[in-house]
Amino acid sequence: MHGPSAQPVSAAPSVTLLTEGTYPHSHGGVSVWCDQLVQGMPDIDFRVIAVTGTGREQLAWQLPGHVRQVDSVPLWGPPAPGRAPRGRRLRRFLTCYEQFLEALLDPAREPHFARGLYRLSDHAADGTLSAALRDEPAARLLARLWNRPHLATAAARPTLRDALTATDLLEHALRPLAARVPAEGITHAVSGGLATLPGLVAHHRHGTPFLLTEHGIYLRERYLSFRAEPYRWPVKALMLGLFRLLALESYRRAALVTPGNRYNRRWEEHGGTPPERIRTVYNGVDPAAFPPAGPEPDVPTLSWAGRVDPIKGLETLIRAFALVRKEIPDARLRLFGGTPRGGEGYRTACEALAAELGAADAVTFEGRVEDIRDAYAAGNVVMLSSISEGFPFTLIEAMSCGRATVSTDVGGVREAVGDSGLVVPPRDPQSMARAALRLLRDPGLRATMGESARLRVVEQFTLRQTISAFRDIYHDLARRRQPVPLSVTVPQPVPVMALAAGGAG
Predict the structure, then answer these.
(1) Residue 238 resides in a domain
(2) Within this chain, do residues 26 and 103 fall inside the same structural domain, yes or no?
(3) Are residues 52 and 183 in the same domain?
(4) Which of 138, 288, 466, 478 could disulfide-link to 284, CB 3.0 to 4.6 Å?
(5) Helices (H), 106-159
(6) Range with the lowest mean pLDDT among 78-82, 464-468, 474-478?
(7) Mean per-residue pLDDT, 46-63
């Protein structure tokens, strides 16, 4: 469902959306946001450069006619055709690749990251980067570099196998450098990380204005996810170095950064973004598309909606529900949402946890639901158990439907909820269970909070407000487009642990 479309405006700019793992090839919060943005601006020509998995993904959205083109950049499909450089061209590649690696490994060399990145993008443009990174000299260069005695990685004694693993990961991660980038219009990355690469290259080559919207903090989520990766520490250090320096370069080059909440803004300021180049734009929903949900279920029910993913904290929710069921034996937990490819093991682990806690008969994985409003109507209380979020759509949609909510205190959740729901610490089943029990036992409190939640959405978080804000931003960036100097001086390095601290989000 889509909200009201704004009226066409003359001389509208063209916009290239930069996505990773979302629109238009999958469903989910950021994909919904992209669809709303595109549908709400029928006068603007959109193009999409979508970083995908294998390149075989089908479109998950029906695209309107003003989405003129979709280019898929698969990270894990077959590599692009091309021959590894030889002779002088190989020496030139190894020189810039060494500069790039040194920036990832040595804090004193971080100011050279941008120069190395953009020189690698030249190799990507001529079709040699992927092949060069798959060739033996690249891995041997890394094996030699990160064993230098003054580098932290040397203490872990990285092996040639580590170098082969890390080089392979870099080859896949840098594939978006080969995307065909626009010389005109605006690029708009809807997340940090690898999706920003085409926008950075377009800005570097053509001065194309680069807009960055962060719903969640990509860098922080990489810190969280890499804890569970099977790689040895030198490999993790190298890849997290890439994500960290890419975040800093994105913040520095963006004409404007539009976080979805104040929590993200703090990260962006800490990453070096000047405050005057940050504008918070909240996600919005159409209250008419998410009207009050109507009667509650007769059986005490907690509902949840989202993708089945470790970052959604479902093990915490299941543990909390097991505690609720000890107090209310007929309680139910209904989980709505698909399981992404590769996430089957996590879902199996969650089902095993429910069985271990004696709650398997009361916990149901419903899969994707045709109408998401049914997921919110299915519960007396709607739960959100994530360990990291931006400004979650499921929360403000449930609020618009007039349901009381229990949510974890991550990202912009507290900003969204205000005093119209209960907020608990992440990874704390006991606190979550107490909050759920409080609402399940008090119909009057649920009704009051549900009414307050819908009013809060109507007043502060409507789709019309979101689309209007981005329409103004697009036109403003198009008006002040001008060539930018291609200097690559960067701010003083920000320590990894300082950025990783993050707080409760």
Answers:
(1) yes
(2) no
(3) yes
(4) 466
(5) 113-125, 129-133, 136-145
(6) 78-82
(7) 94
Is 467 inside any structural domain?
no
Does residue 279 belong to any structural domain of this protein?
Answer: yes
Residue 482's pLDDT is 55
**Token pair 């960067």: residue:** 490
Distance CA 242, CA 174 (A): 10
- Which among 206, 215, 249 has a CA at the least distance from the CA of 16? 206
Residues with Cβ within 8 Å of residue 47, at least 6 apart in sequence:
14, 15, 16, 17, 67, 68, 69, 70, 71, 182
Render 12-58 in DSSP notation, one character per residue. Answer: PPPEEEEEES-TTTS-SHHHHHHHHHHHT-TTS-EEEEEEESSS-PP
Mean per-residue pLDDT over the chain, rounded: 91
Q: Is the pTM of this model over 0.85?
A: no
Q: Which domain holds residue 477?
A: 15-79+177-283+472-501
Report which residue type is found at 147: N
One domain, residues 110 and 247? no
Within this chain, do residues 203 and 274 fall inside the same structural domain, yes or no?
Answer: yes
What's the first-to-final CA gap in the chain, in angstroms? 29
Q: What is the mean pLDDT of residues 321-346?
A: 94
* Residue 266 sits in the same domain as residue 322: no
Contacts of 437 (CB under 8 A, 6+ apart): 324, 327, 328
* CATH code, domain carrying 413: 3.40.50.2000
Q: What are phi and psi of 404, to 5 degrees?
A: -70, 145
Q: Let me know whether 198 and 337 are in one domain.
A: no
Q: Read off the pLDDT of residues 126-176 as tens digits, 9 standing for 90 and up.
A: 999 999 999 999 999 999 999 999 999 999 999 999 999 999 999 999 999
Nearest to 50 by CA among 201, 244, 195, 232: 195
Are residues 94 and 58 part of one domain? Answer: no
Angle between helix 393-400 and helix 29-39 axes, rounded to 10 deg: 70
Q: Which residue among 172, 203, 234 closes a domain?
A: 172
* Cα(343)–Cα(308) distance, integer angstroms: 7
